Amino acid sequence: MSRKIWLLAAILGLGGCRIVSQQELADLKSPPNPHMASVAQTWKNTLVPQVVRDARPLPELMTSLRAAPDFYSACKTLGYRSSDENPCIFYVSVQGTVSRLDTKSRSGKMTLREDSGENVVVQIGPTLRGTLLRDGFKGASYQDFNDQVLFGEYGRAINDQAVNAIQAAQLKEGESRLIYGVFSAWDTPQTVPEITPVQIVAREAAQ
Asked: Is residue 197 part of a domain?
């Protein structure tokens, strides 16, 4: 009797089978991560608005950092750290005049002469170093991936969105720009760290 029941179950199981495509088979073996599937939407609707909302003007942020009793408390009140293994991420806005564009390297840089007179270096790519944008995003963490390789791909995908925004800005020397971005630090910075931007706009458009 048990053999007949087993055969019936096998027949019913076969009756419900269907041919799947190679992509469906790959997805069954490794389901696509929802964060990876919506990077562009996350960038536009969540990540950029978060940085813009939390950004502090550069002079104000640097003054507050140096006045804090210790870096731990400064990070807690002024920045964001997703885990103890990561540096603290700070959200910043800076405005001034583009004094130099260095595009000879793939890790290109822009120097912005800030209104206070400070020279601020901003990454412009097309290769952005680091994962500051990913690590500073409060809407996703490593626990959402549990895969170091996939988490790394997520960071590169976010950086690609930033590069698209930088290229769309069509930067030129002598122009006045407002930049929203992030920088990281393990301790109170003595000079302004290099900034990774999420949004670059003309000063006239921001006013």
From this structure: yes
Does the residue 21 lie in any domain?
no
Domain that holds residue 136: 33-206
Query: How many domains does the chain divide into?
Result: 1
166 with 125: CB under 8 angstroms? yes
For residue 80, give every residue at least 6 positions away whose Cβ sits within 8 Å of its Cβ, in sequence order, or none. 54, 88, 89, 90, 91, 136, 138
CATH number at residue 147: 2.40.50.140
Contact (CB, 8 A) for 171 and 200: yes
* Residue 116 CB neighbours (<10 A): 13
* Site of tokens 């104000």: 60
Of the candidates 128, 113, 105, the one whose C-alpha atom is nearest the C-alpha of residue 175 is: 113
Place of tokens 């390297």: 105
Phi/psi of residue 42, nearest 5 degrees: -60, -45
- Tell me, what's the pLDDT at 142? 81
Amino acid at 61: L
Note the pLDDT of residue 204: 67
Counting Cβ atoms within 10 Å, is residue 143 exposed (0-12), middle (13-18) or buried (19+)?
exposed
Kindly report the pTM of this predicted structure: 0.81
Does 15 fall in a domain?
no
Residue 42 inside a domain? The answer is yes
Please tell me which of 18-22, 109-113, 147-151 the model is most confident about, judged by mean pLDDT.
109-113
